[in-house]
Amino acid sequence: MISVFLFVLTFQYIISVPVIPNYEMPEEAAQYEKYLEEAPKALNVDDHILASAKRLIKENIVDRLKKLDSEQETKYQKHVEEEKNNTVRRFLKHSDEERAAMLRHFKESAERHRRRPKIYQPGSEDQLKEYWEKYEGLDRESFNPRTLFADIDLDGDGYLNVNEIEAFLQREIEKVYNPEDPDFDPWEEKYDQIKMRQKFMERFDTDKDYFISREEFLKNVKVPYVLGDHYWKTAQDVEDMFETDESELRRLASEAQSLEKDHLTDAPNLHQTTEQPNVQKT
């Protein structure tokens, strides 16, 4: 009885500690898994208590990941709003000549965006087979989902976690986001990384536990994938200020002037912020 009490007490401490700071989850999750495998044997814990402990840890991980995703969404939307506000402020301050130069810059940037490579929907047959052919160096016709899963499953535990999925999708991200690009925005890159990971998990994570098991992957990869669009729409495609023309800027400026005087004046300057998104790299 004392051994069971110690196990439960230790477990309660474990789930009270933040599990996934900044998505750095695999090491912490592995430690908990190791504890749940070894401690019950040493302490002779009842199987029902062990099953309950595992369920609660999984729920804890899911809750924390949902919270992190929600927080990142809020930060990104705030960033987009600040970008628009900064653009309007510059437009209001500039002379006609400076405004013309600003619009030329937008036009050139929009043209660069239109020339970017297209990327397939995350988890689609085209995306998986392109990865197989281009990055694994294997013939497209020899595509083997079991082998691909093993390559993505970096720690070999039979499950794909959020870090492994984001690392896998980073190849797609790099097609459109280059730090050397004058229009590069790390907030957009991180936002797309999260949204693409969510789309990938939407297809394969059928039990919604933020892990994709080998069985889930192999079963769902055979299921026809219904796509609204063949290609992924990036954050740049959806919130692209570079597509803004003069009439749109004047409309935004008019709206800004109708607001209270300090609405934009007091808004934080994006270029002075020190916070940067944490982008998972391969």
Q: How would you describe this structure to a colleague?
A:
This is Nucleobindin-1 isoform 1. It comes from Schistosoma japonicum. Residues 257-282 are annotated as: Disordered. GO terms for molecular function: calcium ion binding. InterPro entries: EF-hand-dom_pair, EF_Hand_1_Ca_BS, EF_hand_dom, Nucleobindin. The protein is 63% helix and 1% strand. It has a two-stranded antiparallel sheet. Helix 1 (2-16) runs antiparallel to helix 2 (26-43), helix 1 (2-16) packs parallel to helix 3 (47-93) and helix 2 packs antiparallel against helix 3 (47-93). The chain has twelve helices and two strands; from the N terminus they run H-H-H-H-H-H-E-H-H-E-H-H-H-H. It is mostly helical. It has one domain (45-253): EF-hand (Recoverin, domain 1, Orthogonal Bundle), CATH 1.10.238.10. 22% of the residues are buried.
Characteristic key phrases:
two-stranded antiparallel sheet; Recoverin, domain 1; single chain; globular
Helix content: 55-70%
User: Would you identify the CATH architecture?
Assistant: Orthogonal Bundle
Q: Mind telling me the CATH superfamily name? A: EF-hand
Please give the count of helices.
12
H/E series? HHHHHHEHHEHHHH
Structural class designation: mainly alpha
CATH class type: Mainly Alpha
Number of strands: 2
Instruction: Tell me the overall shape.
Output: globular
Using the coordinates shown, work out and report the CATH topology: Recoverin, domain 1
Main sheet makeup = 2 strands, antiparallel
Distance between the first and last residues' Cα: 46 Å
Rounded to an integer in angstroms, the radius of gyration calculated over CA atoms is 24 Å
Portion in beta strands: under 5%
Count structural domains.
1
Mean pLDDT: 78
Can you tell me the residue ranges where pLDDT is under 50 for at least 5 consecutive residues?
Answer: 13-26, 264-274
- Lateral arrangement of strands in the main beta sheet: 1-2
